[in-house]
Design a protein that fits this description.
Two copies of one chain form a homodimer. Chain A is mostly helical. Chain A contains six helices and three strands. Chain B binds a DNA duplex (30 and 30 nucleotides) through helix 3 and helix 4.
DNA sequence: AATATAGTTTAGTTACAACTAAAGTATAAG
DNA sequence: CTTATACTTTAGTTGTAACTAAACTATATT
């Protein structure tokens, strides 16, 4: 198990918690994870995945061109159950969205043009 | 109990965890808390106490010129027990010191002159 | 009223996390 | 070998948390 402090640091970020939820009970490719958060670039997602991987909170494997991520539930100890309960909350999505908005850093992504040209 | 997310945010800071440990099982004045962390100014401590108080994680009362703080243990739910276990760790002090060094912001305090002038 | 003590608040500084854009890497397929 | 897909990494930007120094508030003491 990771040190409690390292764990607390890693899960203090709403963005990383969002990723953790996605890969908590099943594997997902980096691309699938990115699709679930269209407000950030692929690079941003990849960087947070790296943080989580280096903290030992997710495991990765390669398959063909894909990188497949999965939470390392055992690393979370009891905090895992806390997070699960948090995610069961019906208002979770709303709360997360508010947090992401509040803790956002760096420039906003340039909106992609959708046709019209 | 505070929202899990607010809780996670509050305890993600090593400095705030240090404060919480001090006021976890007994009351302490702001001055006593400050004495326990001579590497920062009184203002810095006061500001973090305010953050914790606004998150509902500590309670304050005034007595004479002192402001007396105490952790609101009930607000922590199961996380409280996690923190307690972390603090029981014999290496806790060392680990915390390393974290404080790593997450430090702002200018360093100007060392007080000790005589010699 | 003046001074001391105990703390809070405000204004300004700094380091860094979280981002973007673009370049780079790896695998697959024509 | 070239092009496409699926990422990761690097270089640069921005917002803000954590600080300092100093001004301020409140209570107690002389």
């Amino acid at each position: 198990m990771a040190s409690t402090a390292a764990l607390l640091e890693a899960i203090s970020s709403p963005r990383r918690r969002e990723i953790l939820r996605l890969v908590w009970s099943r594997e997902r490719t980096a691309g699938e994870i990115r699709e679930a958060m269209p407000d950030v670039t692929f690079g941003a997602v990849s960087q947070q995945l790296k943080v989580l991987a280096e903290a030992g909170l997710v495991v990765v494997r390669s398959e063909s061109r894909s990188r497949i991520y999965k939470a390392n539930q055992e690393a979370f100890g009891e905090l895992g159950r806390m997070l699960e309960r948090m995610w069961e909350d019906k208002l979770w999505d709303l709360k997360l969205a508010a947090e992401l908005e509040q803790t956002r850093r760096g420039p906003r992504p340039v909106p992609k043009k959708t046709g019209k040209g």
